[in-house]
Design goal:
The complex is a heterodimer of chains A (330) and B (378). Chain A is an alpha/beta fold and 330 residues long. Helix content of chain A is 45%, strand content 21%. Classes of the chains: A alpha/beta (330), B alpha/beta (378). Strand 7 of chain A pairs antiparallel with strand 19 of chain B, so a sheet runs across the interface.
């Protein structure tokens, strides 16, 4: 069962559309040390050939020897990164327009980041302030509303950019792309499951979008980790509470494939987020509600079957009350 | 003063057994929120604290406790400070400089080792310690003959984990590179920061001079060696980014002078400079008051201050406020920013030593070479 949620509606209510084609989705934490992917495959009863998407690894794409030996099943990489390079070489018009769009997206992100810094400072200060509870509550709600509005506007702007690009360039109907989509469809159909690795989340999301993976992956068993999980969610949130440079304000970056709605995946949360800080947890959770903000660290596993969470381990939800709640299967 | 020390001193003189218990029951020196008490036990005619904190005397006498063999000295030390020191133990006409026998924390440098006093609140950064999760890079040894310097130099190159020739890498050339490896754990730091995606995978060329006080003091031959001999060699051996923002120089003390001088002599070549506790001595008027080895440094820095140009697009400078060079480093900042250079400057409560330089590497390297941590989730 696939269910699609509409976030950021004006009243923030969750709208769910059901699609009965999504059998199993598994989100995992980082897999480069002490991987549990094979354990997850066994749990799903997958014992056939697999395909992998490792475009997030960029120039290391397709270096899946360790992955193959870990899962002990034949794995073919879909080579989305390399395919994109070939498409761009063959189709200068698409390449040029893609570069222009990426430039616009970067500039939009910079503008959003500037506004976000001020809005977030205000919200954070108000959430940590003591004073008249009634007055403060109103100010806090208002600040949070401003923050959510800003995120919502930014995501809408990004989606408009993508829509314009799709409308103007029609990438999936171009001679340079069609053969790849056909080949990918065959490879995916013949696989027992699709593995989506982490890496550079923008590179990954853009390749998934270019080759229409949202459609091609419908109905397949999916196992995704780190950036892979982020890219399959409704939208991608970048985060790091203590980066070496900059303020570390979590920011909405892009729409994901929306294959597992209602979830914001937070890989490496233990090292990237100040999970000991109750105000920070509360703010993160409130800002992105009603989405569930779920940590994905080493050993984390979340398994949805027909849209229901059927297994969870070593995974925590950021709550609006500012505490971490252990995620449990229904 | 700590409670245990106060209890000990309440008996005059303290019994040897009480001193034994005090010594075995505490970590030394005794650190509290506002200061530190140095403790030495042993027979001596005098005991002096030797440390190099700008503004304080380099020698301070410890006071003997009654007729015992226990010696104490308390000094104010602000939180988060870190200082290095030795004791001078005087017996008769002889004074021996030793590390603190009661303090296990020591810092090595090319001249030996010092004891380390970590003031209240100081913690060694986690990213300076070996992390089993970090993929280790490799060190490759090279020999390079230099016509400019008329020497054959040995150097090491740090090659990051998962290196591949199909990719292009930033290059950082480090002065006193082997000292950075030995005394500032540079390899561990690089492994960790690359693993954490806080800096990109990079090639780091670790140079070491046999005559640093001459070659690093604003010497044109050294600048030629870097740009006309070493850089082409690095380009030949490794796939490097071909833009100034992908090339950096780094050094501490005289190494910082050499870095700035080489970049100044070759504008547009090195887009990134990391300068730690630079020995940027200068004289506005008259003769400088430092030792003669500073003569060429002062000539260069005076010339640089008169016509700074734009040696680099982005620079990171740091200096400890307990260093005698703090004034010179502070003076450099407005001069550089007026040239339109992006400057990040850090001051810390530390001295002219390798652990200070180690602890600043995360901020400095990630400022000059930002990693992809914001976008990459492996």
């Amino acid at each position: 069962m696939k269910w699609r949620a509409q976030f950021f509606t004006d009243n923030c209510r969750l709208t769910i559309l059901y699609d009965f084609s999504m059998p199993d989705v598994v989100f995992l934490g980082p897999q480069f040390q002490e991987p549990i992917l094979s354990q997850a495959l066994r749990r799903l009863g997958v014992d056939g050939p697999l395909v992998s998407i490792s475009a997030g690894w960029q120039e290391r794409e397709g270096e899946i020897d360790e992955l193959s030996s870990h899962v002990k099943l034949p794995v073919t990489d879909l080579a989305l990164y390399a395919r994109t390079e070939r498409v761009f070489a063959q189709d200068p018009e698409l390449h040029g327009a893609y570069g222009q769009r990426q430039g616009r997206l970067r500039r939009l992100q910079d503008l959003y980041r500037l506004r976000l810094a001020h809005a977030k400072d205000a919200a954070r200060e108000l959430l940590e302030r003591d004073g008249d509870p009634d007055l403060l509550r109103h100010a806090q709600r208002s600040a949070m509303h401003t923050l959510r509005l800003l995120d919502r506007e930014h995501l809408a702007t990004i989606e408009r950019e993508h829509a314009t690009f799709r409308q103007d360039l029609r990438p999936q109907q171009r001679a340079s792309v069609i053969p790849h989509i056909q080949e990918l469809r065959q490879q995916i159909e013949s696989a027992a499951a699709v593995l989506v690795a982490g890496g550079h989340v923008a590179v990954l999301a853009n390749r998934l979008r270019l080759f229409d993976l949202q459609r091609l992956l419908a109905g397949k068993t999916l196992l995704a980790w780190s950036a892979g999980a982020m890219a399959l969610s409704d939208y991608i949130v970048l985060f790091h509470d203590h980066p070496p440079q900059g303020a570390g304000n979590a920011e909405v970056f892009d729409a994901g494939l929306g294959l597992l709605p209602g979830v914001i995946a937070l890989p490496h949360a233990q090292t990237r987020l100040a999970l000991h800080s109750s105000p920070r947890i509360a703010m993160f959770a409130r800002r992105f509600a009603p989405a569930r903000c779920l940590t994905l660290d080493h050993g984390s596993l979340l398994h949805w079957h027909a849209g229901k969470l059927t297994a969870a381990s070593n995974c925590w939800r950021l709550s609006r009350q500012g505490v971490l709640e252990e995620v449990r299967a229904a | 003063m700590s409670t245990t020390l106060r209890e000990l001193l309440s008996n005059d003189p303290p019994a040897p057994a009480a001193i034994d218990a005090f010594i075995s029951g505490n970590d030394f020196p005794l650190v509290d929120r506002s200061g530190v008490t140095f403790v030495f036990r042993g027979e001596a005619d005098a005991v002096l604290l030797r440390c190099w904190i700008h503004g304080l005397p380099t020698a301070q006498l410890l006071e003997r406790v009654a007729q015992s063999d226990l010696w104490l000295l308390r000094i104010d030390l602000p939180a988060n400070s870190r200082i290095e020191y030795k004791f001078e133990v005087v017996r008769g006409e002889r004074g021996d400089w030793i590390t603190d026998p009661l303090n296990p924390h020591k810092a090595a440098d090319p001249f030996g080792a010092n004891s380390v006093c970590q003031g209240f609140g100081y913690e060694r950064p986690q990213w300076t310690l070996p992390d089993p999760q970090s993929r280790p890079g490799a060190l490759e040894e090279l020999r390079v003959g230099s016509a400019s310097l008329d020497v054959v130099s040995r150097l090491f190159t740090y090659v990051p984990a998962r290196f591949r020739r199909s990719r292009r890498y930033p290059l950082l050339i480090v002065h006193d590179g082997e000292d950075y490896l030995r005394f500032a754990d540079l390899k561990t730091v690089l492994d960790n920061l690359i693993h954490r995606l806080e800096i990109p995978p990079m090639i780091v060329c670790l140079t070491q001079s046999a005559d640093r006080l001459r070659e690093y003091a604003g010497d044109d031959r050294h600048a030629r060696f870097l740009s006309e001999e070493l850089l082409p060699l690095m380009r030949m051996k490794y796939p490097l980014l071909d833009e100034p923002a992908g090339r950096g120089l780094m050094g501490a003390s005289f190494g910082a002078v050499a870095s700035l001088h080489a970049a100044w002599r070759n504008p547009g070549v090195y887009g990134r400079l990391l300068l730690q506790s630079g020995s940027f001595a200068f004289s506005d008027i008259g003769h400088h008051r430092r030792t003669p080895v500073f003569d060429p440094v002062v000539r260069f820095v005076n010339e640089f201050r008169a016509q700074p140009g734009e040696p680099s697009g982005r620079m990171y400078l740091s200096c400890g406020i307990y260093e005698s060079l703090i004034y010179e480093n502070r003076s450099m900042v407005p001069l550089l920013t007026e040239q339109g250079i992006q400057v990040r400057y850090e001051e810390v409560r530390d001295g002219h030593n390798w652990e200070n330089w180690r602890d600043r590497l995360r901020t400095g390297l990630s400022w000059l070479f930002p990693g992809p941590s914001w976008m990459v989730y492996e």
